[in-house]
């Protein structure tokens, strides 16, 4: 098992390039199930979750080949309708294969996903939506078994905004008979990227990026070539890395408009952000101002940036209040930040952070993907040495982040425990 050794106190400088989006790549990979043929997906990040998705596709009968950050997916011979627990348990997004398998093969048997460290994240909205599209669904022995000769369009109103549910039903409805309307749909940029892919395959989808999506079912879809959008959460993490170290960095391959809520908050903190010629320059402030944030569904402040922002507030002038409104267990990084000397109190879904002058390096343990990034950021700003263990979480969502940070001047290295 690997860990990271960080010697903090260095101001970051230089240029870094953001990888393709993990959260966009996963449903795009799954969407290739919908039609036979060879697809080419570029700007794909090298991540554990990508490898897991490839294994799922190969189990279903796809042939997957990689060349750098370009992945070829040939789904001509997809004929296995079952995704087993051994694969699905390692990544919740695997459940997204249910709808595409049902749409293409008329049946699917997919394991229920396991638990999640940051919250329950049930798939009941996925199943309710598929049932509305005409699927016959049974839960037996930990598996979802679904059948339908052909799905049919329906009006589906989500009880809560769900990214995975919106993506899942967009894919399932693409070849359903008639029109499907998704109301209270999630609006994330990754959903727009998936809609672009589906439309290029021949689907008829309107309204992606708004809370109402209309899908007119078509009889068949074809293969596609697509370049995955940049990873906005990785980009945001680098922005905070510049801020927390008082650095001055330039970020390539990012779409700043996808991070408006974070940008506004960082500017309130005192960070200077300049977007010129598609390169974003981020200059950390001399003094970090404490501000309050509340996580919300997109376009609100992203829950996936909450932990990283909390690390920044640990060094702010004054107190900050951070409210987590998406996941119920997403403050597990607090106890680890306190090992750096941070002053944080938690009550329910609210954390109060009283800024201190200096963090002190410490051995810490990552509890989930974004918590891993939070601890790295704290380590970059802390004095002495920080050791971050259990970084296998990190490898699920950040491509070679220690190498990218080292390229910006950070003293960080990966070693075997």
TrEMBL record:
<dbReference type="Pfam" id="PF00275">
    <property type="entry name" value="EPSP_synthase"/>
</dbReference>
<keyword id="KW-0808">Transferase</keyword>
<dbReference type="InterPro" id="IPR050068">
    <property type="entry name" value="MurA_subfamily"/>
</dbReference>
<feature type="binding site">
    <location>
        <position position="326"/>
    </location>
    <ligand>
        <name>UDP-N-acetyl-alpha-D-glucosamine</name>
    </ligand>
</feature>
<comment type="pathway">
    <text>Cell wall biogenesis; peptidoglycan biosynthesis.</text>
</comment>
<feature type="binding site">
    <location>
        <position position="304"/>
    </location>
    <ligand>
        <name>UDP-N-acetyl-alpha-D-glucosamine</name>
    </ligand>
</feature>
<dbReference type="InterPro" id="IPR036968">
    <property type="entry name" value="Enolpyruvate_Tfrase_sf"/>
</dbReference>
<protein>
    <recommendedName>
        <fullName>UDP-N-acetylglucosamine 1-carboxyvinyltransferase</fullName>
        <ecNumber>2.5.1.7</ecNumber>
    </recommendedName>
</protein>
<keyword id="KW-0961">Cell wall biogenesis/degradation</keyword>
<keyword id="KW-0131">Cell cycle</keyword>
<feature type="modified residue" description="2-(S-cysteinyl)pyruvic acid O-phosphothioketal">
    <location>
        <position position="116"/>
    </location>
</feature>
<comment type="similarity">
    <text>Belongs to the EPSP synthase family. MurA subfamily.</text>
</comment>
<feature type="active site" description="Proton donor">
    <location>
        <position position="116"/>
    </location>
</feature>
<dbReference type="GO" id="GO:0008760">
    <property type="term" value="F:UDP-N-acetylglucosamine 1-carboxyvinyltransferase activity"/>
</dbReference>
<keyword id="KW-0132">Cell division</keyword>
<feature type="domain" description="Enolpyruvate transferase">
    <location>
        <begin position="7"/>
        <end position="405"/>
    </location>
</feature>
<keyword id="KW-0133">Cell shape</keyword>
<feature type="binding site">
    <location>
        <begin position="22"/>
        <end position="23"/>
    </location>
    <ligand>
        <name>phosphoenolpyruvate</name>
    </ligand>
</feature>
<keyword id="KW-0670">Pyruvate</keyword>
<keyword id="KW-0573">Peptidoglycan synthesis</keyword>
<dbReference type="InterPro" id="IPR005750">
    <property type="entry name" value="UDP_GlcNAc_COvinyl_MurA"/>
</dbReference>
<feature type="binding site">
    <location>
        <position position="92"/>
    </location>
    <ligand>
        <name>UDP-N-acetyl-alpha-D-glucosamine</name>
    </ligand>
</feature>
<dbReference type="InterPro" id="IPR001986">
    <property type="entry name" value="Enolpyruvate_Tfrase_dom"/>
</dbReference>
<comment type="function">
    <text>Cell wall formation. Adds enolpyruvyl to UDP-N-acetylglucosamine.</text>
</comment>
<keyword id="KW-0963">Cytoplasm</keyword>
<dbReference type="InterPro" id="IPR013792">
    <property type="entry name" value="RNA3'P_cycl/enolpyr_Trfase_a/b"/>
</dbReference>
């Amino acid at each position: 098992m690997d860990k990271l050794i960080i010697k903090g106190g260095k101001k970051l400088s230089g240029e870094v390039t953001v990888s393709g989006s993990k959260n966009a790549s996963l449903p795009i990979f799954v969407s290739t199930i919908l039609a036979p043929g060879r697809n080419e997906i570029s700007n794909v990040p090298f991540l554990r979750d990508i490898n897991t998705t490839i294994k799922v596709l190969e189990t279903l009968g796809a042939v997957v080949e990689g060349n750098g950050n370009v992945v070829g997916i040939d789904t001509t011979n997809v004929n296995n309708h079952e995704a087993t627990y051994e694969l699905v348990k390692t990544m919740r997004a695997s459940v997204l294969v249910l709808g595409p398998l049902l749409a293409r093969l008329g049946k699917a048997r997919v394991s229920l996903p396991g638990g999640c460290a940051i919250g329950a994240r049930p798939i009941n909205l996925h199943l309710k939506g598929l049932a509305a599209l005409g699927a016959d669904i049974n839960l037996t022995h930990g598996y979802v078994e679904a059948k339908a000769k052909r799905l049919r369009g329906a009006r589906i109103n989500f009880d809560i905004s769900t990214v995975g549910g919106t993506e899942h039903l967009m894919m399932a409805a693409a070849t359903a008979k008639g029109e499907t309307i998704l109301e209270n749909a999630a609006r994330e940029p990754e959903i727009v990227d998936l809609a672009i892919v589906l439309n290029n395959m021949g689907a008829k989808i309107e309204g992606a990026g708004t809370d109402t999506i209309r899908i007119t079912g078509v009889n068949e879809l074809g293969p596609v070539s697509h370049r995955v959008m940049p990873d906005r959460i990785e980009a945001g993490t680098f922005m905070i890395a510049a801020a927390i170290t008082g650095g001055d960095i330039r970020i390539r391959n990012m779409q700043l408009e996808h991070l408006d809520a974070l940008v506004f908050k960082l500017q309130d903190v005192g960070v200077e952000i300049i977007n010129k010629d598609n390169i974003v320059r981020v200059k950390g402030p001399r003094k970090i101002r404490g501000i309050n944030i509340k996580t919300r569904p997109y376009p609100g402040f992203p829950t996936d940036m909450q932990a990283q922002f909390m690390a920044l507030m640990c060094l702010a002038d004054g107190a900050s209040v951070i409210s987590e409104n998406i996941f119920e267990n997403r403050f597990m990084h607090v106890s680890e930040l306190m090992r750096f000397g941070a002053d944080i109190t938690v009550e329910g879904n609210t954390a109060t952070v009283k800024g201190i002058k200096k963090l002190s390096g410490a051995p810490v343990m990552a509890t989930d993907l974004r918590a891993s990034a939070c601890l790295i950021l704290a380590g970059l700003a802390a004095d002495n040495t920080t050791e971050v263990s259990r970084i296998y979480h990190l490898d699920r969502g950040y491509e070679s982040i220690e190498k990218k940070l080292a390229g910006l001047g950070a003293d960080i290295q990966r070693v075997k425990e």
